[in-house]
Amino acid sequence: MSIKKFQYKKQFKLENGKKLRNLEIAYHTYGKLNKDKSNVVWVCHALTANSDVSDWWAGLFGKNDLFNPQDYFVVCANVIGSHYGTTNPLSINPTTGQPFFLAFPEFTIRDLAAAHEILADALEIENIEILIGGSLGGQQALEWSISNPNRIKNLIVLAANAQHSPWGIAFNESQRLAITSDRTFYANHKDGGSKGLKTARSIALLSYRSYESYDKTQHEIDSEKKTDFNASSYQRYQGEKLVKRFNAYSYYYLTKAMDSHHVGRGRNSVKDALNIIKANTLVVGIKNDFLFPVEEQKFLARNINDAEFAEIDSFYGHDGFLLELSTLENIIGAFIKKNAANKNQKNLRIA
């Protein structure tokens, strides 16, 4: 499925009051919208993912998977600031005719949700049957469900939180310190900050995985080895891998957006904000998630009306929301089936 582009004709006003002209949103769709437009599944992607959900969440999305395009109309939009097609720091600034780089305005999770809302309007999608996202994607899904609660019918949030924690912000700041310590970051070049980005990814990976996963996958067999350990080469490899597909400027801004996440901002309190959500909600936490501890998901489930909570134990830590596909398919499938049955019973009573 090829990438599609939507250009917003008006100025896009950010939460901080700044404006983006000619906002372009890259997105993918899979399947067909049914007659009553009741089969929409909208996916909010994580930090460095893209809008091709079948690429990074295969096993949940794809032919013969839980979210089969033969049954659902799946939409995934690339977020503002991302490297994969939506307006970002490497896009051309209409004021100067040159790439934005560090002149790009800061944005928040709330802005990302607002852009989804605009695209949904453009696609003439009035209701989202299922809204799903993990990590930064889950933060977007929560914001959207609060900003327009009547539009979202079923909400699935994985490994996310109501506000980003001091712990999470500290990890992100450490990564930005690595990026900004690379002098080339200020050179206004598309490859600026690449060495810093490599280091940032190495830092991030430690928060995504677990002690157990490293002990198992990077364990040394040779007891005589004194240097160039498996874990060392693995960190270098993962850093280089991201540098080949992403840019330091997008990463810098997106981590700042994650830090900004706070559903209670301007809404009295976090609990008051979560109480606005009307969607049938499933919250999934990962028992050994180092970055988004499971207590954060339990908090969501306690404070969203009638929300369901499920906990999984993953060898991979936080990354389990991307990798524990069989377990997630069972949990999410049961949630969807239950709410579909409740919906049918309600319709029969009305009839």
Q: Can you offer a commentary on this structure?
A:
It is an enzyme of class 2 (transferase). The chain is an alpha/beta fold. The protein folds into 2 domains: 4-164 and 268-350, Alpha/Beta hydrolase fold, catalytic domain (Rossmann fold, 3-Layer(aba) Sandwich), CATH 3.40.50; 168-257, Rna Polymerase Sigma Factor, Chain: A. Helix content is 40%, strand content 15%. An 8-stranded mixed sheet has the order 1-4-6-5-7-8-9-10, with helices on both faces. A two-stranded antiparallel sheet has the order 2-3. The longest helix has 26 residues, at 325-350. The protein is globular, with a radius of gyration of 20 Å.
Q: So how many helices?
A: 12
Beta-strand percent range: 5-15%
Helix vs. strand class: alpha/beta
CATH architecture of the largest domain: 3-Layer(aba) Sandwich
> How many β-strand runs?
10
Integer-rounded radius of gyration: 20 Å
Low-confidence stretches: none
Helix content percent band:
25-40%
Overall average residue pLDDT: 96
SSE ordering = EEEEEHEHEHEHHHHHHEHEHH
Catalytic activity: L-homoserine + acetyl-CoA = O-acetyl-L-homoserine + CoA
Pfam family, one: Abhydrolase_1
EC number: 2.3.1.31
InterPro entries: AB_hydrolase_1 (IPR000073), AB_hydrolase_fold (IPR029058), HAT_MetX-like (IPR008220)
